[in-house]
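Data deposition worksheet. Section B asks for the primary sequence of the deposited chain exactly as it was used as input, without tags or linkers unless they were present during the calculation. Section C holds the resulting structure in token form. Section D is free text for depositor observations; keep each observation to a single sentence. Incomplete worksheets are returned to the depositor.
Section A, Depositor: J.P.
Section B:
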Amino acid sequence: MIYVVNKKRKLEKVKEEFPNAAILDITSTSNMRYAQILSPFYPHMNIPIPFTEGLTATCVEAVWQGLKVFDGADVDFATFRNDTMHDLKRTVRKFGMPKGHRKGAYGTELLGYFEARMLIYLPTYKWVLDNVPEVHRVMERIKEQSKIQDIVLLDYNTNIDFRDASKPLSHAGLVKLYIEGKYPDGVDGYQPMTKEELEQKKQRDKEQRKEIKKRAKKQKHEQSGSLFDNE
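Section C:
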């Protein structure tokens, strides 16, 4: 089973809840490069920008941030070229209220938040998972290990449901969906969660946390290891 846990939690607490799991930090601040390359901030370079023929960006986050349109700023081509993993986020404080994401760097149509998630962020991240050989190899290793051992992926965001537009999406959640063969394709047939569905999700999450704690008490307290201890 693959779980997504907030990186800000104390590692000791994570190990208590998942005593026999392999723990992998896949954020941009991970100290393991093989895990860090799964971050949307990692500059793999030459990533196609959706709806923009011939133009590429350094990383997934550069695509997402570069296509944002604010009251005081439009598409930012400099962001597409940012390969530092820093200063990628374009904020309301600096540029004013967001108006949407431009559908292509030269497009005229603005996409709403959910549409942009489905048509820009998800396809761009999937392109990396599909087309960067090094990334694909790591994904295969996680998939194989998850068959014999629980895997905990650490991420700053823990919203793993792409239909939940009330919170930022966890890229670790997308890794989980990809490995489980549930990664969404396109926007057709998908709608943002309703208030009722969000409440139901909140209850499911609460019950899952209780189940995890209950299971942890029954398991032997063995030290969790790294997924790639031999590297």
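Section D:
The longest helix spans residues 195-218.
Strands lie at 2-6, 22-25, 47-48, 56-57, 68-70, 98-102, 110-111, 151-155.
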